[in-house]
Design brief:
It is elongated, with a radius of gyration of 34 Å. The protein is built from 16 helices and 16 strands. It has 501 residues and is of the alpha+beta class. It folds into 2 domains: 8-148 and 215-247 and 282-373, no CATH class; 376-492, Immunoglobulin-like (Sandwich), CATH 2.60.40.10. It has helices at residues 36-54, 87-108, 111-115, 118-135, 150-176, 178-186, 193-213, 216-221, 223-231, 243-246, 254-262, 274-280, 289-292, 313-324, 337-340, 350-372, and strands at residues 59-60, 63-64, 66-69, 74-77, 80-82, 238-241, 332-335, 376-382, 389-390, 396-406, 412-420, 425-428, 434-436, 441-450, 459-467, 473-481. Strands 8, 9, 10, 12 and 14 form a 5-stranded antiparallel sheet that branches. The protein has a 4-stranded antiparallel sheet with strand order 13-11-15-16, with no helix packed on it. The structure holds iron/sulfur cluster (2 copies). One iron/sulfur cluster binds next to α13 and α14.
Length: 501
Amino acid sequence: MSSNTPPLLEPEEHVLSTLERDGSRRWLKPKVSKGRFLNRRRWVAYGLIALFTLLPYIRINGRPAVLLDVIGREFHIFGGSFRPTDSLLLALLMLTTGLTIFLVTALLGRVWCGWACPQTVYMEYVFRPIERLFEGRRGVGGKPARPPAAWRTVAKYIVFFLICVHLAHIFMAYFVGVDQLFAWSRGNPLNHPFAFVIIAAVVGLMMFDFCFFREQLCIVACPYGRLQSVMIDKRSMIISYDPTRGEPRGKLGRKKRDALADKDKPEDERTVGLDILQQYGGDCIDCHECVTTCPTGIDIRDGLQLECIGCAQCIDACDPIMDKIGRPRGLIRYTSQEALAGQHTRILRPRVVIYPTMIAAVASLFLFILVTKAPADVTILRQAGMPFMLVESGQVQNTMRLKVVNRDNTTHSYTVSVKEPAGVTVAMVEGDTITLGPGESYTEPIRVLAHPGLFSDGRLSVTLTVTDGADYSEDTSFELLGPRDRTPSSTDEDPQEPGHE
Ligand code: SF4
Ligand code: SF4
């Protein structure tokens, strides 16, 4: 930079809690504040880590509890199986989930972010503890004053890498199932390069997130975090500093001690004057414990902020300070904006009634469709590039593809027959029945034969019945194609005409 270039203007305050004033990264090393919420969150986190790990192994009705088989176009979710033909069911399921998120956020604010989101759970209860193990507990925000020994950093990243490999495999198990994953893990990556590349990419993304991007995912990338301002209202539960109690803040000197000791006493028992009380009487002693413990690097005393993930670490940091200075706990607490303003908070409000009503309606419709849905799916499609052909018997033959999906939990054998009209026959090409285990599907070519005289303007409406010989029977109608305006015989065949043999 030339000596004539004017110096860059510095911003008056941090633009982002993860940026220094000069725009460089502000690495956060939040101090761990032990307390009741940290303990409770730890148990929740360990439980969720166990659940996330075990879910792909758990089987319900012989199928994985959660399997999102995108390539096979089948989703198994807690005993229910969904296919592309179940778009209404999937839409209702997603709507129910979305409305539940709205309701939970309206009532409990960002409880998901602070207590259950996998990003928070793994970052705060796996990666940061390992980092502290290797690099020590600095306990202050901002860049480390002294970098740790190189071997510690290398060892930390090796452990991070191994954990990310493990997590990437768990992640993949949700999409391909544990059996497939074990088969891939034991085999040569060159035999399944696509899967190997996907897992390598997931490991890379996880390393990027947990080693570098970290809390910025919550602050700048997560759409749920950005939407919280429209999902919460003045009665939603938030974590907040109480400025009426805490201000004026100030360091703990003699005058502040005296003011705090006299604050709640009747006027005639006070030893300090009103001016001292007004100047020093705030409960906050400006110790910055709530700031240095915050995993997103914000100061809760600045009010409700988008960056706050509701982790309650600032509560655990501030309560012991209040104990030490003899003030009641809860200067930072779970509360609501309305309660902070001194108003009575009513849980019951329109959105708390409307959301559950909508959830009940949508979930009921979902369950009704799910329960009344047939135990098999039947689809009949035309064989590509072959409208019809005339066979030696003089009949018109349409070759179709019959796809049967067994949605039931037991094995069934399906047969197909013609319901109407009379004079039409059907035969499977590869056997008389299709036998399918639970969740299996099969596509079988079928030949449908009809006399040419049955066709009107080259078309004939046909209904086939697919049945398992027991409880299941489904009729499917479709149109056969045939010759127009004449009654051909087998001698009419034109070998050059497309669709004729
Ligand atoms: S921990 Fe409590 S007392 Fe200390 S700065 Fe934060 S709010 Fe004030
Ligand atoms: S402000 Fe408090 S609750 Fe919010 S993220 Fe920081 S420490 Fe957690």
